[in-house]
Amino acid sequence: MFFPVPMSQPQRIYLSPPDYRQQPLPASEQLSDIAWLEGRAAAFESALAVRLPGTHVAALSSGTAAIHLALILAGVGEGDTVLCQSMTFSASANPILYLKAVPVFIDSEPSSWNMDPELLEKAIKTELNKGRKPKAIIPVHIYGMPANMTAITSLASTYEIPVIEDAAEALGAVYNHKPCGSLGDIGVLSFNSNKIITTSGGGALTSCNEAIVRKARFLASQARDMAPYYQHSEVGYNYRMGNVNAAIGEGQLAMMAIRVQARRSNYQTYYQALADLPGISFQHEADTSVSNRWLTAILIDPQKSGGVTTDQVRKALKTQQIESRPLWKPMHMQPVFSTCPAYVNGVAGGLFSQGLCLPSGSALSEADLQRIIAAIRSSWEMVRRPSAVSHH
């Protein structure tokens, strides 16, 4: 009996896998040393603070936990309004609902793809005219591209509203010579497995105000009072980062500059190889910003591309075992937030309809990149290729 030999599939290329190369992992004897292990979260916090000068750091179980605690520390409660960037992952907005507060979504500016300061001011004024002063502003540095923090923090200062800087995707990015994660009243970082550096799962809350960080650590440790027995005067959470995760993070942090350099190099390779294609464009980096290029994202305008669409390119990549993903679907377009107020200009919706994130892992080889580029260019070649079928 004849059995056909299956054709071998090309090795799969993932969007943003973790990278543990060249990193010392904790040895088994270290992990069994209780004294050493107990100090890892504090050591990781100190190492992060060195990279975010002027800040104090609380290592937590996730970036979402950090946003939740940040909102609590900003005094957000039931019925309050929080101004949140619409073009982001849902973790930026979900904690607002945890507190039974109301997210008010702000659309994007075309340049950075992040929160539009003009719409932000319009939202603030409108909410004040309704007799509701927003309790916080949450700008996000999507894909590692810094938001227009000069304008945003200026408005926040004028109207005395705290800024919770969602830098979950932006560790290693810089704005006006200051690292992202140190630009707001409270900063948020993520060390999820797809981020620039990972602790497998984890996040951090940062602030230049030591009292805020101290209170965050307290709330994250079940709000246990200083007593010889278990006493609790406030509601607490199990949000502290585990010491094993922190030990992994220490090693990852030592490689951060190399990982950022690799991702910026990926972007340059894509840009140089694809910028000539009609209808394609990239996320713009302003003179004030240095993006970590966590993910390289492209836009494809079908009116200029000869009919090539983002979905066609995504499917072409998928057939080659290459993972890509549409841009974040804006929060004001999500069913769960459909009743929330939103100040929109159409930018975020347009980005979502035309945008695609390309594989951006720091371990991508030159061969991987060329394979991805060839798969993308094939979509334009199909459009340009004359039909093989003649019509009479």
Question: What is the structure about, briefly put?
Answer:
By secondary structure, this protein is an alpha/beta fold.
How would you sum up this structure, described in words?
With 392 residues, the chain is of the alpha/beta class. The protein has 13 helices and 15 strands. The protein has a four-stranded mixed beta sheet. The longest helix has 19 residues, at 256-274. Mean pLDDT is 94; it is low at 388-392.
Q: Please tally the helical runs, counting DSSP H or I stretches of 4 or more residues.
A: 13
Oligomer: single chain
The total strand number stands at: 15
Which strand order does the major sheet show?
1-9-8-5
SSE string, helices as H and strands as E: HHHEHEHEHEHEEEEEHHHEEEHEEHEH
Indicate the radius of gyration in whole angstroms: 23 Å
The portion of residues assigned to helices is: 25-40%
Per DSSP, what share of the residues sits in E-state strands of 2 or more residues? 5-15%
Report low-confidence residues grouped into runs of 5 or more: 388-392
Biggest sheet statistics: 4 strands, mixed
Average pLDDT works out at 94
Shape: globular
Distance between the termini: 46 Å
The structure class reads alpha/beta
Could you name the key traits of this structure?
single chain, 392 residues, alpha/beta, four-stranded parallel β-sheet, 13 helices, 36% helix, disordered C terminus
Which secondary structure elements does this structure contain, and how are they paired or packed?
Elements (H helix, E strand, L loop, with lengths): L27 H4 L2 H5 L1 H12 L4 E5 L2 H11 L7 E5 L8 H5 L3 E5 L10 H13 L6 E3 L10 H11 L4 E3 L7 E2 L2 E2 L6 E5 L12 E5 L2 H11 L22 H12 L1 H19 L5 E3 L6 E2 L5 E5 L9 H10 L5 E2 L15 E2 L3 H8 E4 L7 H19 L8
Parallel strand pairs: 2-3, 2-4, 3-14, 5-8
Antiparallel strand pairs: 1-9, 6-7, 6-11, 8-9, 10-12, 12-15, 13-15
